[in-house]
């Protein structure tokens, strides 16, 4: 540890009962039992950093919780963070507050397309992408990812076949959930070039951008920075909530350099009165962006250690389970085909025999068969316990 730097403790096990945590509350419904280690919803079991909690406490020292504006420094601290971390100069007018990225995806679908329009996504992918398309009565079109050398790659040949006169939007997950791919600049350039040929606007969900793992040798590239066309035809979403473990606050941002596109999107937010935030959204984002770098680095080092522990454990003890090693974030895509179970049976086996609550692969669409998604943003002792339970369950099956 460097002198004078805070040392954060990610080993502490924190009981989340009685907080209405989705991760715990929905176990019975999803896994058929409450008796599971919940390693599913993509939030962390680490303490939300102290500088964020303090920002909220400080605000609560004032006795009136009245109607409140976003502090103007919300914009400057967000754009400074993006410049420092992703080398992107975001002008003030490009940037706006967004009350959550999943809501933002739905707003974009509604603001930029009409019922019956086609929208392309790349499964297996974060499942709300499907919901915001289908529940808004748009047509879901898929460009499934391919797996090469243990990681996902885009299938550009297939993509070329997927555009029709009705294609109006592409929703990109950059970096990718559940595969943890940090798309390279070259891949994104080629991707943007194809979308340009077909003149299709892109929503780039970059919520995982600040979680590129130290072991990956990758760098996040905002899609909007790969070409002049992509800058003018991308709606980018970013947020401090995932990386700083405060998703319950709901605080994110949109960035749209093209003024016509921005107006269409912003007008939709305005018309729905969705362009303001709750009083904690701005102050927590600022606290995160202004104080969070050391915490972010230490958290990513810890998560990297968890991924390495998991990969070693599986290789040495349960080689039937093959993890896709993520380049970003704390979600690990597990290929369990060699366990010889159909996806539903596999999910039940994990829940009821191993006592582990993981996401079923098929909710992420095509390519999710025989897979589960495991969240490793937990104290190492919990992950060790999970692996012990899994090993026992697999051994007793044989
Ligand atoms: C790709 C992606 N987008 C969005 C979200 C959630 O965003 P929000 O909490 O801002 O709605 C997640 C959470 O896991 C995610 O993985």
UniProtKB/TrEMBL annotation:
It comes from the Bacteria. InterPro entries: Aminotransferase_I/II_large, C-S_lyase_PatB-like, Class-II_PLP-Dep_Aminotrans, PyrdxlP-dep_Trfase, PyrdxlP-dep_Trfase_major, PyrdxlP-dep_Trfase_small. It is an enzyme of class 4 (lyase). Keywords: Aminotransferase, Lyase, Pyridoxal phosphate, Transferase. Its cofactor is pyridoxal 5'-phosphate. Pfam families: Aminotran_1_2 (PF00155). Its EC number is 4.4.1.13. Coiled coil: none annotated. The keyword Lyase applies. Residues 35-388 form the Aminotransferase class I/classII large domain. GO terms for molecular function: cysteine-S-conjugate beta-lyase activity; pyridoxal phosphate binding; transaminase activity. Belongs to the class-II pyridoxal-phosphate-dependent aminotransferase family. MalY/PatB cystathionine beta-lyase subfamily. This is cysteine-S-conjugate beta-lyase.
């Amino acid at each position: 540890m460097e002198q004078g730097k805070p040392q954060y403790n990610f080993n502490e096990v924190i009981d989340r009962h009685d907080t209405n945590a989705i991760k715990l509350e929905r176990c019975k419904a999803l896994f058929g039992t409450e008796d599971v280690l919940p390693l599913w919803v993509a939030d962390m079991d680490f303490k939300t950093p102290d500088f964020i909690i303090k920002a909220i406490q400080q605000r609560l020292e004032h006795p009136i919780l009245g109607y409140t504006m976003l502090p103007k420094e919300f914009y400057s601290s967000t754009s400074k963070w993006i410049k420092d971390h992703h080398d992107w100069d975001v002008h003030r007018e490009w940037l706006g507050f967004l009350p959550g990225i999943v809501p933002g995806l739905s707003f974009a679908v509604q603001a930029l397309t009409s019922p019956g329009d086609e929208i392309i996504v790349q499964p297996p992918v974060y499942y709300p992408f499907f919901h915001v398309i289908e529940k808004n009565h748009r047509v879901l079109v898929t460009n499934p990812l391919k797996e090469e050398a243990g990681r996902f790659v885009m299938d550009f040949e297939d993509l070329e076949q997927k555009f029709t006169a009705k294609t109006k939007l592409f929703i990109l997950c950059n970096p990718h959930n559940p595969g943890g791919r940090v798309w390279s600049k070259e891949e994104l350039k080629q991707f943007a070039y194809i979308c340009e040929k077909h003149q299709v606007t892109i929503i780039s969900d970059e919520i995982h951008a600040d979680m590129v793992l130290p072991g990956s040798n990758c760098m996040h590239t905002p899609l909007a920075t790969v070409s002049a066309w992509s800058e003018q035809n991308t709606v980018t979403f970013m947020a401090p909530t995932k990386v700083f473990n405060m998703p319950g606050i709901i605080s994110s941002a949109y960035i749209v350099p093209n003024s016509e596109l921005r107006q269409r999107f912003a007008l939709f937010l305005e018309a729905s009165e969705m362009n303001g935030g709750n009083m904690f959204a701005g102050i927590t984002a600022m606290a995160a962006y202004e104080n969070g770098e050391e915490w972010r680095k230490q958290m990513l080092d810890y998560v990297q250690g968890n991924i390495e522990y998991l990969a070693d454990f599986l290789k040495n003890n349960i080689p039937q389970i093959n993890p896709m090693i993520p380049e970003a974030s704390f979600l690990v895509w597990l290929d369990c085909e060699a366990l010889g179970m159909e996806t539903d049976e596999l999910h039940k086996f994990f829940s009821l025999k191993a006592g582990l609550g993981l996401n079923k692969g098929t909710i992420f669409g095509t390519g999710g068969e025989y897979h589960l998604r495991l969240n490793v943003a937990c104290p190492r002792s919990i992950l060790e316990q999970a692996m012990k339970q899994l090993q026992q369950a697999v051994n007793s099956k044989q």
